[in-house]
Amino acid sequence: MRFAADKVNLDEDWDDEVLEVVVVGSEGALTRSLSFQRSLHDPDEQEIQLGWDTYSVSMEDGKTDYGCLSEVQLSGGRLTLNFLPDVAESLGWPEVVEVDLRVSEEEIAEMATVLRSILEWGRRDSVPRISGI
Prior knowledge:
single chain; 133 residues; alpha+beta; nine-stranded mixed β-sheet; 3 helices; globular
């Protein structure tokens, strides 16, 4: 799947205790979005047992998974996400999502900084390969 994103939202929400990056755009007539989140607090025992001690990714369909990326690349204004095959299959997501970021270079740079901090948070074994960020 590939879509163009004309909005990037960054949010540090202390009420919900999450750091979030959201990219929103379209693929033809469809609205597409991806949300990347991590907690702003250290995980507790229940979160660790549930596997919530890492970042999460949600799509516009509302489905969410934790630690679900194998690789993330930012190059030339394109964000490429490679999902773990078993996750993609179980959630009905494509294995590769490409997002053409149609926002300013400053917004891309800010997004990259926050996105890296989200993806590197939590369990070490769930951190994807990251390049260009």
